Amino acid sequence: PTTTAVPLAAGLPTTFQWGVATSAYQIEGAATEDGRTPSIWDTFCRKPGAVHDADNGDVACDHYHRMPQDVALIKSLGVDSYRFSIAWPRVQPGGRGPANPAGLAFYDRLVDELLANGIDPWVTLYHWDLPQELEDAGGWPARDTAYRFADYAAIVFDKLQDRVATFTTLNEPWCSAWLGYHVGVHAPGRQNFDDSLHAVHHLLLGHGLATQRMRALETRPHTYGITLNMGTADPLTDSPEDREAARRADGMGLRIYLDPLRHGRYPADMVADLAARGSAFPVRDGDLAIISEPFDVLGVNFYFGQDFAGTDESGNTHDGSGAPVVRAVLPDTPRTAMDWPITPARFTQLLVRLHRDYPGMPLVVTENGAAFDDNPDASGYVADDERTAYLSSHIAAVAEARAQGADVRGYFAWSLMDNFEWAEGYAKRFGIVHVDYRTQTRTPKQSALWYRDSIAHTRSAR
Ligand code: GBH
């Protein structure tokens, strides 16, 4: 099937970068091959009740064995770039010591295959698969993990820097720290507030150390970056309580990452909030200079924005433990299969705000997309109008942000194909390409054909 090419929003320049994104544990499978050791996600998936249907990434999309065909699939979409992550436990089993040549060779072949097909490789060094041995030694709450990450980054960079132009360090440290060490719904499933604060600081420190190490090793110029998940946090009403809740949500979700990265300090209001509850970031002399090492591009992962209320349903401003209420109130809008609201206007709002509050920082949308309840026909084709509409409206929101001055240079759809959706297992599908997990057949959905045709149309129109 083909689609009628719908022009993407006007005003995107010829140099605008179009891509698709994945991550290692979500697609690769081959969990025990060629010397790979377990990551925290291999362990977490075996914890009863942790992952929907007790799914795991042992096989996933079997990308490790189907890589050349998957690169051909990417090429068929006509995108410029492919964002993928490298599995730390493949290239440096156990998280320490020498490189594992067999693990590294996979990414060597992937990069060569991409380049042979004219696709720009965009590397993410860490998309949540910490070697289990490092978790056993304390994980991200332990300072040493930041130094181990820099060593690992140097191994990857040394091997790929001759062919890869863009290296980003972390994907969504908020998820690693908050969901992994405080809420406990992601690996390693710990539930300790102070551990999560320590994880934040050591993730940021690892980012800075790794960026410095790569710069010191480079034999030609590269683009360095980091990807954060970000939404918007507006007060539900103008009440002081709601404004306070929005301030706290924005502080914990966005400013405690971007302020140290770009301004070399944690936000004073958040430091004060934390002190009031007896907590603090474990900052040592010199750390903030490392964390604020300049980088070239901020990766923005956007799914939705929210309003916040400072009172619970009964009007209380503090919960049972005495903590102030910060309640996400999802606006009354259509939802995706994740129950996430669809809020494209807030995407424009976020991008313009980043441009205003953190100027001089080029932006690339490294993830945006949606899960819907796909219904494949007998041939495996999915007529996913809702996903097509989601992508179309959010790309239009990017064009609008650019029109308002935001320096957004590219857009990666999440995801190339259906894959292991973390705690949701295989039940939630974000792909623009359908995957039949029984046969590993890939079938482009309507949204993929729309994306392909629209990119081509936009190029021919300019
Ligand atoms: C990304 O995480 C991941 O990078 C990717 O691997 C994953 O498959 C994809 O998105 C789809 O989930 O309501 O307080 O939780 C995104 C996770 C979702 C975290 C939105 C922040 C909003 C704040 N993000 N969420 S909250």
TrEMBL record:
Keywords: Carbohydrate metabolism, Cellulose degradation, Glycosidase, Hydrolase, Polysaccharide degradation. The active site is at E367 (nucleophile). Gene3D superfamilies: Glycosidases (3.20.20.80). Its EC number is 3.2.1.21. The keyword Hydrolase applies. GO terms for molecular function: beta-glucosidase activity. It catalyses: Hydrolysis of terminal, non-reducing beta-D-glucosyl residues with release of beta-D-glucose. Belongs to the glycosyl hydrolase 1 family. This is Beta-glucosidase.
